[in-house]
Amino acid sequence: MNLLTSQADLSNELKKEAMKLGFSPVGIAKVPGSERLKLRTKALNRWLKANHQAEMGWMEGEKRKNISDLLKDISSVLVVGLNYHVTSKPKEGSLLIGRYAWGKDYHKVIKKRLKTIGLWLKRQRPNCEWRVCVDSSPLLEKAWAEEAGIGWIGKHSNLINPERGSWMALGYLLCTEELIADKPAKALCGACDICIKECPTHAITEPFVIDSRKCIAYHTIENRNELLPKEIAESMGNWVAGCDICQEVCPWNTKDIVKTSDPDMVPKNWLMELTVEQVLSWDEKEWGQKLKDSALKRIKPWMWRRNALATKNNVSINLKTK
Ligand code: B12
Description:
Layout: H1 7-20, E1 26-30, H2 35-49, E2 76-83, E3 96-97, H3 106-124, E4 130-133, H4 141-147, E5 152-153, E6 159-160, E7 168-175, H5 194-198, E8 204-206, E9 209-210, H6 216-221, H7 230-235, E10 239-241, H8 245-248, H9 251-254, H10 276-281, H11 284-291, H12 301-310, H13 312-321
Parallel strand pairs: 3-10
Antiparallel strand pairs: 1-2, 2-7, 4-7, 5-6, 8-9
Helix pairs in contact: 1-3
The protein binds cobalamin (B12).
Residues 40, 43-44, 47, 56, 59, 98, 100, 134-135, 139-143, 153, 156-159, 166, 168-170, 187, 208-210, 212, 215, 217-218, 221-222, 242-244, 246 line the site of cobalamin (B12).
C-alpha cells in the first residue's frame, strides 16, 4: 500500500475506499462544523422541549449535542450513504414495511464496511483514532451529513441527495485525523410541501419538524404500549413496520433515480408478501428466524401482532367475517 503524504490525497483516497465498498454519496465534514450545525442543535432542543420525541427518552441524552463527547480529539467525520432503492415492489394488497428494512440489517452492513475503512485509515496514519456510528449512537446524523455535503435535510426531515433521492441509510466514521472537508449541501426543497400534505396523520407539524407522537413509523417501530392510539390505527392503512409515505410522494424520489444492486440490500421475500394471517400465526421461533439479520428485530413479535391487528387489511377481514 502506498503511504499518502498529503491530507488532500488522504481525504480523496479515503472517499474512494468508501465508494469501493458500495457507499455513495460520501463526504467529509470538519469538526466543530459550521454555524448551521449550531442551528440544528438548537432545533433539537426545541424538538425535545415540545415533546416531539414521544417516549424515546434516550433522545434526551446530552451527548447528541456535542460530537466531541463521542471521540476524544475528534477532527473530522466521513459520512456515507448506503442506497437501498431497489426494483422490487411489495405484492398488491400485502402489509407494508419501510424500505430501509427490506434487505439485511443496515446497521450491521454499514458498520462492517466502515470498520474496514477505519483500518485502512489506521494503516495510512498509525496515530489516528477512529470510531464508527450508525443510527444508535447519540449523534445528530442528518445535520452532519448535510455538513459533509452529501445532501440536504428535506421538509420530511430525511436527508435528500440530488442524484439519489432519500432512499439511503447513513453511516459515520469519526476520526482524529484532520481531513479536507467538502462543502456543506444546499437545501433544494423550494416551495414544495407534498410530504407535509400527504402525511395521513399530519406528523410533519411544520417544515422539517416531525412530531413522533403522530408518526406511523414511530408507533409501529418504537411505541411499546399494548395498544396503538386510535387516531394512528385509523390512518395507518397497511403500514405494519415503519412508514415511507412522506418519501414516496417526494419529487426527488419519484424521478428516475439510481437503483442499487448491492447484494446486502436485496429484499427478503417474506417482507414483500406479508399477510395479517401470517403475522398472527407465527410463533416466537418462526419470528426469531424471520428477523435474524434484520433491522426489524427492534419490532418484537407482540408488536407485529398489535400492528397487524390495527391495519386496514385486518379491519377488512373482520368486516368480511361478520
Ligand atoms: C429518532 C429517529 C427517528 C424517530 C423520529 C424521526 C425524526 N425525524 O427525528 C422516528 C422513529 C419517527 C423515525 C422514523 C424514521 N426514520 Co429515523 N432516526 C431517528 C434518529 C435515531 C435520530 C433523529 C433525530 O435526531 N431526531 C431529532 C430531531 C430534532 O431531528 P430531525 O427531525 O432530524 O430534525 C432536524 C431537521 O428537521 C433540521 N431542521 C430543523 N429546523 C430546520 C429548518 C430548516 C430550514 C432546515 C433546512 C432544517 C431544519 O434540524 C433538526 C436537527 O438536525 C436517526 C439516527 C441518528 N442518530 O440521527 C434516525 C434516522 C433519521 N432515521 C432514518 C430512517 C430511514 C427513518 C424512516 C424513514 C424509517 C421508516 N421507513 O419508517 C422514518 C422516517 C420518518 C421521518 N419522516 O422522519 C434514517 C434517515 C436516512 C435519511 N436518508 O435521512 C436515520 C438517519 C438513520 C440512519 N442512520 O440511516 N426515526
